[in-house]
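Feature request, filed as a ticket because there's no other form

It would be nice if the structure record came with a short human-readable summary line next to the tokens. Right now we just get the raw output. Example of a typical job, pasted below so the devs can see what we mean:
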Amino acid sequence: DLLIIACSLEKMVDEVTKKTLAAIPLLSTKAGPKDGALWIQRLKEEYQCLIKYVEQNKVADNDWFRLESNESGTRWFGKCWYIHEMKKYEFEVCFDIPVSYPSTNP
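Raw output as currently delivered:
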């Protein structure tokens, strides 16, 4: 019975994830910070995805992060939070995009 429950839960998570991803625009430009105009196009796509994802989260009352980048899109920063037992835990987020992105993950 436990195996059936675990398999059902895994299937539900996959379906929820698939539904979420289906509503977010896909990235089509493969470019990194050293790719000039292509990188600007990639940043536009990244922002469109983030905006759509944040909108979805707000509609679902699941708002949990804010994220923005520097002008060149190579440093991202913001906050994420989690509420547990009526107490809000907030964390700063900061990461750099490597010059070899998207071949190398941040």
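Something like this underneath would help us a lot:
The beta strands are 65-69, 75-84, 87-96.
The first helix runs from residue 2 to 22.
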